[in-house]
């Protein structure tokens, strides 16, 4: 099921021995469009300190109550590496964070979470992971060394969902709207769509744009460019946040743009 980032705002994050705080933002990987961390305000407990909580640490969410149980303790959070959320977070920062919690590095693998699709599969106490832990760690370490050589560890690759909200969407033939939210898969934490408001052109019309249709995100200009025309976006299926977005809606949207996409092998260009 898909959930919007705004639905997650102010959600409660609970440790195994008490409340950690409330979600204020989400950092996503700007290369593969996957949510990597929840930015959590600890309130008076840690004098307003912002901490990062990885989806690896989270159990099954209660979306009705807006609560996320975490399989870590408050003490672990309290002594976790300090990260300034007002500055870009580098790969080096992440290495310190993941090492602290004993989590393997997710980069360098064959999939969005190391060699798997789901963050919980990287948790050290996940049975299938433990069965092959040594081999997995060796593979992760080998990929990590290659990755460190390939790119600068200080190169920031995480972006704030809150910061990109408001970016203008630029079609092939002009501006078409602005980003208002994101839809994230509750199991993989992949960003499946950007929610775009086009009301400046068409009253109340919200549309979805998949990350694979984006040709560039221009951080200095605060724009997102897509290889789509204004007319194609204008007549695309509307998104209604009050209705659940389902598989049939995916198929309809991808067919509209003549695109193949995730889990969409049956969709063909027309």
Topology:
Blueprint: E1 2-4, H1 5-8, E2 12-15, E3 18-29, E4 34-41, E5 50-53, E6 67-69, H2 74-78, H3 91-101, H4 127-131, H5 133-150, E7 158-160, H6 161-164, E8 168-171, E9 174-185, E10 191-197, E11 206-209, E12 214-218, E13 223-226, H7 230-234, H8 247-256
Parallel strand pairs: 2-6, 8-13
Antiparallel strand pairs: 1-9, 2-3, 3-4, 3-7, 4-5, 8-9, 9-10, 10-11, 12-13
Mass-distribution shape: globular
Helix count from the secondary structure assignment = 8
The oligomeric status of these chains comes to single chain
pLDDT < 50 runs, ≥5 residues: 128-153, 264-270
Terminal-residue CA separation: 27 Å
Q: What structural category do the secondary elements indicate?
A: alpha+beta
Arithmetic mean of pLDDT: 85
Major pleated sheet: 7 strands, mixed
Short structural description:
The protein is built from 8 helices and 13 strands. The protein has 270 residues and is of the alpha+beta class.
Structure description:
This protein has 270 residues and is an alpha+beta fold. The protein is 23% helix and 27% strand. The chain has 8 helices and 13 strands. A hairpin with a 2-residue loop joins strand 8 and strand 9 (174-185). The chain starts with a strand and ends in a 14-residue tail after the last helix.
């Amino acid at each position: 099921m898909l959930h919007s980032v705004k639905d997650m705002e102010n959600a409660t994050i609970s440790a195994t021995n008490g409340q950690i705080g409330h979600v204020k933002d989400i950092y996503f990987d700007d290369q593969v469009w996957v949510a990597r961390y929840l930015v959590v305000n600890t309130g008076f407990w840690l004098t307003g300190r912002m901490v990062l909580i990885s989806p690896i640490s989270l159990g099954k969410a209660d979306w009705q109550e807006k609560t996320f149980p975490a399989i870590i303790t408050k003490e672990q959070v309290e002594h976790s590496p300090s990260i300034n959320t007002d500055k870009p977070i580098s790969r080096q920062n992440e290495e310190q964070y993941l090492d602290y919690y004993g989590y393997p590095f997710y980069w360098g693998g064959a999939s969005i979470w190391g060699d798997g699709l789901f963050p919980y599969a990287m948790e050290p106490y996940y049975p299938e992971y433990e069965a092959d832990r040594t081999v997995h760690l060796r593979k992760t370490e080998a990929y990590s060394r290659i990755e460190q050589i390939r790119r600068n560890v200080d190169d920031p690759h995480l972006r704030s969902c809150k910061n990109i909200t408001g970016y203008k969407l630029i079609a092939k033939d002009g501006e078409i709207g602005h980003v208002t939210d994101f839809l994230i898969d509750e199991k993989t934490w992949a960003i499946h769509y950007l929610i775009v408001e086009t009301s400046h052109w068409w009253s109340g019309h919200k549309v979805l744009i998949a990350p694979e249709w984006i040709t560039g995100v221009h951080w200095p200009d605060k724009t997102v460019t897509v290889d789509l025309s204004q007319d194609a976006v204008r007549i695309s299926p509307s998104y209604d946040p009050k209705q659940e977005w389902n598989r049939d809606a995916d198929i309809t949207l991808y067919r509209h743009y003549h695109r193949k996409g995730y889990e969409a092998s049956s969709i063909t260009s027309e």
